[in-house]
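Q: I have 547 residues here and want to know how they pack in 3D. Can you give me a structure?
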Amino acid sequence: MPRLLLLLSLLVVSPALALQQPNGAQIPSMMGCDGGKPTGLAATFACVCGAPGICNIGAPCSSMTNCPDGKNGICETTLWHNFNDNTCIPSNRSGLDPWTEASTLPETFQPTCPLTFTVVSRSDARFKNAFGWYNVTGKKPAPADLHLMLDCQAAAGAQVVLDVKNDPAYLGGEVGFFLVTPESHAQKTQCAGGNCCAATARLAAGEGYVYYSQRAYNDDNNGPAAFIHLVIYDSHLTQKKFYFAWEDLFGGSNNTFTDLVTSVQGVECSGGGTVCNTGSRGVCANGVNQCESGKLSCIPIYAPRPEVCDGLDQDCDGVVDNGAVCPNGDICHNGQCVPHCAQSSEFSCGSDMICDPTTGLCGEPGCGSVSCPADQVCRGGHCVGACDGIICPHGTECRLGSCVNPCKYVTCETGKQCAGGLCVPSCNQCGGLTCKAPETCQQSTGACGDPSCPVGCPAGTFCDHGTCKDSCAGAMCPPGQACKGGECVPGIGPGSVDPSEPDGGSGQSGEAGCGACDRSRDNGRGSSMLFVLLFGAGGLARRRRGR
């Protein structure tokens, strides 16, 4: 039995060779032992935990039936022994796997919020390396473009926070990361000039080397056979956090990748946060690219849920609003709950419309027998695009022929704002709502606003370069409607304009169905695509792998 257990432990320890140096050496090398404790990246990550001062490394088995599981807290990696295995090097592991998850990708990153730089561990080697960031421009950064964050004196646990988006050095795009060493160009493994503290300022004097997350820029890069200096890991515990494990000798060394291990929180991999199609139907087709072990995966934004009357296919069966129930006997039509025109005492069709008592909808006289596809409506007896010719008032959007304000009747909890009908983290939170120019984030409220109108604008108006303008200006509402107070409401007649809104437009007469109904009964939940464009991936929880 002991021999069988030893064999099984060897099978557990030996990882799939997910990454190798050009010479075939395994990356990273296997765990070692120092002073009775395991060494290597697995042991390093086993001590990266939710609480300080603990490690998930189990003690050796005291008997065949007593093998501590090593779980002392929530950590990136957990290590534990088998009976009769090497008492220093555990045979088993779970969580972040330094071998199967080792990657040289992504090489570039997109900042999503203030960046937190941390020294995870620093080896006892004589080189006192330093770590920082640079702007990705398509060419190798000059020494002046290397921005040091963790200097040679930063010990394990040291942290520096950078609000990179407000840093004058940030150019607004993707960023990369670098390691600078003090190694002599004349004497390999020796500190240049006897000074072992790395600094970007020494590069101009030919002292030290730089290794980049973009491997092609490395000082010892000689093509496909070039030594790999950096392996990258996606955190299992913290969203938008990556680990950078470095080898610091020019031309290569022992492949432990523990010379300096750093982390950066607040970044997404290149391409992360962009819109993608999951291949599903309805709102389930909307996805966002997220990074998993250096590769992009299209993660669904929505799961199927019961239909509500909002012009979207919420249950992802390919049919919009089927089965959606409206209150008070109203009818779901064109994404809105509208009163039954034959039963409501407070609602009547426009002067150029007639009420169909069977359907309860207002329509043109010539459209009664016309049946249109789901994305079209009948006008003048013909099926046309539901939003053709419609220009919705500022702040609203056309959905199935109606102008709707998807956030008007949505109330969000503290710390969230409505975007496209959905409650998302506010703009003053890490990874929160992204404000589109000219709007900026109002830190006190977490909402986006135009700073050129510091006191805001009255209802029915919007800020435009310091001036409050009528939201109805230039609007062309759906047929039978006129713009009033920044919304399309039942019109006065064909081609009418509400007298209190001189700039408000109305649609031409006639439409199958009434899109101009009581807006207080709107149950819209917003456009999923608008949500992605405004908010991106920032506040979406990345799927976490098992610990």
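Q: Anything worth noting?
A: The CA atoms of residues 129 and 231 lie 16 Å apart. Confidence is low (pLDDT under 50) at residues 1-17, 492-497, 501-547.
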